[in-house]
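Exercise 4. Each item below gives a protein and its sequence. For each, produce the structure-token representation.

Item: Melibiose operon regulatory protein (Blautia wexlerae).
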Amino acid sequence: MAEIITDGSQKELKKHGSDEFPLLVSYEKLSGYKSGSFLWHWHPEIEITLVLDGQILYKVNQCTYHMKAGDILLGNANVLHAGFMEDMKDGKYVSITFLPKIIYGSYGSILRRKYVEPFLHNFSIPAVYIDYSQPWHEIFSEYVREIITLYEEKKEFYELDITGTLQKLWRCMLQNLPENLPYTEHSKLERNRMREIMDYLEHNYMNKIQMKDIAEEIHLCESECSRLFKRYMNVSLFTFLQEYRVERSLEFLLSSDDSIMEVAQKSGFTDSNYYAKVFSRVKGCSPQKYRKQNTKKE
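Answer:
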């Protein structure tokens, strides 16, 4: 089973492509991950996700996208993101992950300053969702599929062809973004604090957690810690923690014979009834039903 390996800041450690050509095309499915989802992480690369089959509940910072087959999502660099099954249905997808420098070349390039950096640093654009509700989405989709084909075939000049297609894709996106889009740039300190919070939750979700514990960890007062999290994730820290515990419980639920009480306790819930209530709200069914249906698939 796959698992996303991260460091202490929730940065993914997997290398996407090579130093010479930092781009990777990979085929994945949610059921290939231990918990049936890829949990919160970030990386300096931009990631384009094309859903091939099924559906994915994709979350990027404070935004949620209900992706179906054919839909595409471009996730901005350095954003926190995660993907989950929806209605207990698997999701198969292909990802194109690349460093932005493929588009602009040298650091001092006008392409970086004029066309890439403003997008990368705008917190109001955590992702661009391609659902074919606008005419240009079809063109964008064709570029995505062309890049995948070029990568798979690896014919002569394929790196050059991918770079050119990627630049056309980028231009297509930029020229169709809303003109009145607000520009919001968050500080590096705030981004790092959010990553510290996510790392703390990952390593302590099974224990009792209070706001003061997290606030002390990132050296903020409790009220500011709460506001920071809500600003980034559009949900309270407590609500997020309960949902995160449910996602982490799936591994215990599906790969062991533990009782529901034992699964609940391993996931940070002290009350199995409350665990079942939160589980039903998040997954749409009871833990018992989820275990039965997904064990049967295997």
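Check: The two ends are 13 Å apart (CA to CA).
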